[in-house]
Amino acid sequence: MFSHIMVGTNDLDRAKSFYDSVLGTLGVPPGRVDRHRVFYMTSSGVFAVSLPIDGQPATHANGGTVGFAAASPAQADAWHAAGVASGGTAIEEPPGVREGPTGKLYLAYLRDPDGNKICALHRLPA
């Protein structure tokens, strides 16, 4: 359904350092810089961070979340710890199991240094 997801940043170097660290815990190689953007390429999709093309400040979505698949609760915890250590902010409840209409999920939430809400998600067996 999706070809890519892109969020904005006001500091490309800071964003690259943050996402290299966070996504590295999920096995994603370091991002590639292309002019005013950083691309993270995987077999399941592309995530990118960009300075706004219009020259205006980047702002985060209110109500928006970008979710990253984690292979295990331990990987989600490592993702969360790397994010906090790299300038992100822990938000929502601490990482842990949540129950919803689709079953049990292990979730960890952060705000990146630009305020974008991101999440590591692992679906637990039924």
Question: Would you kindly provide a written description of the structure presented here, covering whatever features stand out?
Answer:
This protein has 126 residues and is α+β, with helices and mostly antiparallel strands. Helix content is 21%, strand content 37%. The protein contains two helices and nine strands, in the order βαββββαββββ. The chain has helices at residues 12-24, 73-85, and strands at residues 4-8, 32-34, 37-42, 45-50, 66-69, 89-90, 96-100, 103-111, 117-123. It is globular.
Oligomer: single chain
Question: What class, by secondary structure content?
Answer: alpha+beta
| Proportion in β-strands | 35-45%
Mean pLDDT: 95
Low-confidence runs:
none
Number of helices: 2
Helical residue percent band: 10-25%
Full CATH superfamily name: 2,3-Dihydroxybiphenyl 1,2-Dioxygenase, domain 1
Q: What is the count of distinct domains?
A: 1
Question: How many β-strands, per DSSP?
Answer: 9
Along the chain, the helix and strand elements come as: EHEEEEHEEEE
Large-scale geometry: globular
- How can the largest sheet be summarized? 5 strands, mixed
Q: How far from one another are the termini?
A: 25 Å
